């Protein structure tokens, strides 16, 4: 047996021993071991450069590869995983004892990720790599939801700052010592020998696979001796593993190689932060899917990681990968496995998410089918049943929005009622389900066969939520929008009045710029939106201002006070301040304000400034609105009405001529399917009669008569008009 390399420490500047060229193949191994021993004694890799080995055949190259592989294995065998495990444990404790804003937290988190990847390279456990990726995706969650052995929630343990710093220092030392426990000289030796041998090995030779794999190990080990930011050895190691994969034909070996290249890509991502490395991981993980020996738990972790990665990046390829992991893992589950319901629910959620982004109906149909299957496996006392019921209801809502008949809402409402029946009264999830149920009731009420009982129940539910969340603007707006919906059919003035009051309260809770930066619910669509942080000024404020202005203006037209219309005008002006050019919604607000000013002019009989401003606003709106916009007809019609009104005030014929010209333009744009073409014709006829009265041109009278005949044809008896 050959002696192991000597490990005594000496100065780096010791004179290297020269190694003579071996006279035969049989002398290679002894000479190489001697040179390595000398290099280790001197702690200098310069000895390696002076090895003058002669490789003249494939047989000699195979012998050199065998020695290099043995040398690498000997060094790896001396590494202590217990030290690495201790480092990981200490990094976790630092994270547990410090908030994400603490400077120690981010360093410990990064080092924990690196340590987990390092452990994966030695154990082959996918769970460590999966955890490291999860920590990357959720950098501020850390491990703060872990329970310690004493059942004390992490994040609540108290440690002195000095103690925590000491823990991190010890962890860093242990990790560094582990990473550098393979001698730099050995790394250089292995890399040198294999680079000498590889040109003499056939491209598909089995030994070439060993050489490439071992070369990657040597490069990865040497990488830890460089500055953290230097990735040249990592780059070369990844290339070597790719070469090995091209040769590999054994499934077990292929899985090991795929794991290694995935680990190194993620390690490089942690160092350089290049998103391309995360993208490059996907095809390697897809190779893992093709292997039949993956444990379902590993598959589940990978599926979850890529589902979360999609939420972070929006890259649909990540979601596709997640779906494939779920499918593969489910095929490996034993029949009757307790985990099957968890797999089914997660796969269904991934498919539903993919449908919402890609619109593939087959994904939605499969998601609904899977949720139904999951419910059959979940008795009433099953802890996941409320969630699955909710997910199925969400999927059915998506199907309804995709054009499925209205009766699907009946099942949605039934599902939400069942969830509420299963949840304890104090469960925080109840509020979300109550809101979802109320929204579904609003949707059913808005359908062809909507029942008054649906909207009444929705109002009651939203009032209950408001009692629990009185200071939340979204709760106020939910009640307001539901009252507005009920008012549109029932015309109860009290509903409109209360809606206005509630919206005012909601606006008070969202000053501009909104200091809390909460987004609100869209109070007219009745679709729940997630609350999220947004930059100021608050983007939802424009919608709230416009909605409140609409309510006030409607109440004014229903016989309300002049102050309602004045306040509505002020609110739309504020909206315009929040929508500078080129805001895509500005032209709508300009048109709304112009219409309100025109109506106020007509009701007050003579505030000329309102009329002039209305015309100016309409012109601005037309300049901003795309010429092909479907609402352009309405804008032009409103401008023509305002011009006609102004002509009546000061009899300037240019206003009348422009009004007539604008009405003609409207008729050119108007399609035969327009619901009210007679109103435009009637207004044009009126303008022509006004022109005849001023100019006495018979052609205008003749055209007006002709148009009125057209209007009569469009409104046959028994039309009351």
Instruction: Give the oligomer, counting copies of the same chain as homo and different chains as hetero.
Output: single chain
Sheet with the most strands, sense and barrel status: none
CATH architecture of the domain at 440-571: Alpha Horseshoe
Low-confidence residue ranges: 1-26, 139-158, 512-536
Q: Termini distance?
A: 112 Å
Structural class: mainly alpha
The total strand number stands at: 0
CATH overall fold name of the domain at 440-571: Serine Threonine Protein Phosphatase 5, Tetratricopeptide repeat
Strand percentage lies at under 5%
Query: What is the C-alpha radius of gyration, as a whole number of Å?
Result: 37 Å
Which range best describes the helical content: under 10%, 10-25%, 25-40%, 40-55%, 55-70% or over 70%?
over 70%
| Number of helical elements | 30
Given the C-alpha coordinates, what overall shape results? elongated
Element order: H for helix, E for strand: HHHHHHHHHHHHHHHHHHHHHHHHHHHHHH
Q: Report the CATH superfamily of the domain at 440-571.
A: Tetratricopeptide repeat domain
CATH class of the domain at 440-571: Mainly Alpha
What does this protein structure show overall?
By secondary structure, the protein is mainly alpha-helical. Among the domains are: 81-179, no CATH class; 440-571, Serine Threonine Protein Phosphatase 5, Tetratricopeptide repeat. Helices cover 70% and strands 0% of the residues. It is built from 30 helices and no strands. It has helices at 25-42, 46-49, 58-77, 81-96, 103-123, 126-137, 161-179, 184-197, 206-223, 232-247, 251-272, 275-290, 296-313, 316-332, 340-358, 361-376, 385-401, 408-422, 429-445, 452-468, 473-490, 493-508, 540-557, 562-577, 586-604, 608-624, 632-650, 653-669, 677-695, 698-714. Helix 5 (103-123) runs antiparallel to helix 11 and helix 28 packs antiparallel against helix 29 (677-695). Residues 1-26, 139-158 and 512-536 have low confidence and may be disordered.
